[in-house]
Specification:
Layout (H helix, E strand, L loop, with lengths): L8 E5 L5 H11 L4 E6 L2 H7 L14 H8 L4 E5 L2 H6 L2 E4 L19 H13 L3 E6 L7 H14 L8 E6 L9 H6 L4 E4 L3 H12 L7 E4 L1 H32 L3 H9 L20 H14 L3 H28 L8 E5 L14 H11 L3 E5 L5 H15 L9 E3 L3 H5 L4 E4 L11 H6 L6 E4 L6 H6 L3 E4 L4
Parallel strand pairs: 1-2, 1-4, 2-3, 4-5, 5-6, 7-8, 9-10, 9-12, 10-11, 12-13, 13-14
Bound molecules: uridine-5'-diphosphate-xylopyranose and adenosine-5'-diphosphate.
Length: about 475
């Protein structure tokens, strides 16, 4: 390896689902590196510093144990402070990059407002040579924008001590709920860049715990594009299996059996073949929309249409589930008590971004249903924010009546229900006592299992109607 800068201090901007766990694992694996995570949101930082580790701002299995080990050893969480940027050898940009809601590219392009702000802050405060690492999921060629902002600051500084920068792309591939394991045992680490010395510096950090054979180096654009394409391929598998779920319902086949049969082919593989209410999370939709936007920008309309179809099927699946619920309940859910089990976009996370539950709940509320929502990790406050935002987006004030309540106890939530709609595959939902539940339901009552985790026979034996996704 060529002579390169040894990274001793890392600063990460953004203490969210990406920045928090990633820096916790780097600090844990590299005790010789001082890692600081800064955020503009002081309440979030307060939660990261809370003595009670149950109050960390994100729930991720294994995270609190690491935080206990490394916080105040070589990992600190602070509100924004220029000194951390000044002192850092490497700065990771891990801020949020949601889809633009207004203006050019609205609904498709990523909003780079926060990324640009970070780049300006780094340009203003950095000293010496700094490696700037693009960690957030970003559209291809964002590194170019970051580079331009950093280098334009140099033009105004002709002193001998003017800062210098190398920009790298190092996309995150962690999945929420398994983030710690994904970070500790990654399938691969991708480092894209043009400056080999900077690539080697970051390579060295990961080599402390990752087999060097798994560290792939590429040019900047390949790295940025690979992240979008990896997520687009994964999401495509989910839309593919979801599209077949309706065919199964229509023909009498069983989607679990079909998934098992096709997944046994090594060339197809058995992961990401679980049919469900559609994918959620902060990445899949955003990354595909970015890919579509990019293709349209380059005039590649056939490719844009191909990938856009993955999103269209995802929305269709959520719409289809809501319509089935209404149809089964005699075409009206008005004033009926419907219980939603699970509000996070998947199990083992408290994240609700793009959760299928938001759209399905919103649609049922607009039909006049009375919803009771339960989730083991998502707070009432979070649900309220997610539904409020979705109401605002729908621009339909009539929806603002918000006939929903939050219930912490599952069994209490289910009392007097007309229907139970399982949307997230939390473990606690797998072992419910249907004999007890059946005694307290309205009649006729329905269970809708969109995650294929409930035991159909037991539910039917207890006199409850049952619908499961992908079963004819
Ligand atoms: C994803 C990618 O997996 C990760 O590599 C990337 O860095 C970020 O985006 P994440 O969104 O956390 O991670 O979760 P993931 O496990 O990929 O699930 C995404 C969505 O797809 C969830 O809503 C999940 O329920 C759904 N899903 C997943 C299915 O419906 N079926 C499946 O078989 C797998
Ligand atoms: P992700 O899933 O990408 O980690 P999150 O929304 O969970 O996204 O976290 C992003 C974090 O970045 C938030 O806590 C937000 O306050 C923080 N953030 C955004 N812009 C800036 C900025 N300019 N400076 C510091 N922190 C920022």
């Amino acid at each position: 390896m060529n002579k390169h800068l040894k990274i001793k201090k890392i600063c990460c901007i953004g203490a969210g689902y990406v920045g928090g766990p990633t820096m916790a694992v780097i600090a844990d694996k590299c005790p010789h590196i001082k890692v600081s995570v800064i955020d503009k949101d002081s309440s979030r930082i307060k939660m990261w510093n809370d003595n009670n580790l149950e109050n960390l701002p994100i729930y991720e299995p294994g995270l609190k144990e690491i935080i206990k080990r490394v916080r105040d050893r070589n990992l600190t969480f602070s509100v924004e402070n220029d000194s951390y940027i000044r002192e850092a050898d490497a700065i990771f940009i891990s801020v949020n990059t949601p889809i633009k809601s207004t203006g050019l590219g609205a609904g498709q392009a990523s909003n780079l407002y926060w990324v640009e702000k970070c780049a300006r802050k780094i340009a203003k405060s950095a000293e010496g040579h700094t490696i700037v690492v693009e960690k957030s999921t970003l559209p291809v060629r964002t590194a170019e924008i970051i580079k331009k902002i950093l280098h334009s600051s140099l033009k105004n500084n002709s002193s001998e001590n003017a800062p210098t920068f190398s920009v790298l792309s190092n996309p995150e591939f962690l999945a929420e709920g398994t983030a710690i394991n994904d970070l500790q045992n990654p399938d691969r680490v991708l480092i894209g860049g043009e400056d080999y010395s900077a690539i080697n510096s970051l390579h060295e950090v990961y080599s402390f715990w990752v087999d060097p054979k798994k560290i792939i180096t590429t040019n900047l654009w390949s790295s940025e594009l690979s992240k979008l394409v990896a997520n687009a391929f994964l999401a495509q598998r989910i839309s593919s299996i979801n599209s077949i779920s309706q065919l199964c319902e229509t023909t009498g086949a069983n989607i679990s059996e079909v998934a098992k049969a096709i997944g046994s082919d090594n060339r197809i593989g058995n992961t990401f073949l679980n049919a469900g209410p559609g994918f959620g999370g902060s990445c899949f939709k955003k990354d595909i929309l970015n890919l579509v936007y990019l293709c349209r920008n380059f005039g590649l309309s056939e490719i844009a249409d191909f990938w856009e179809q993955v999103i269209i099927i995802n929305n269709w699946q959520q719409d289809r589930i809501y319509k089935i619920i209404v149809e089964k309940l005699f075409n009206t859910v008005e004033q009926k008590k419907l219980v939603i089990l699970g509000f996070s976009f998947k199990a083992n996370t408290n994240d609700t971004r793009e959760s299928p539950a938001i759209k399905i709940a919103n649609d049922l509320l607009s039909e006049g249903a009375k919803l009771t929502i339960h989730d083991p990790k998502v707070s009432k406050d979070q649900i309220e924010k997610a539904l409020d935002n979705s109401f605002k987006k729908s621009k339909n004030n009539a929806l603002n009546k918000q006939e929903w309540v939050y219930e912490k106890s599952i069994y209490k939530a289910l009392e007097n229900a007309d229907a139970i709609i399982l949307l997230t595959e939390w473990d606690e939902y797998k072992s419910l006592n249907w004999e007890i539940i059946s005694k307290h339901l309205n009649s006729p009552a329905w269970v809708f299992d969109t995650r294929l985790i409930l035991d159909e026979n037991i539910i039917i034996q207890n006199g409850i109607n049952f619908w499961s996704l992908g079963k004819g």
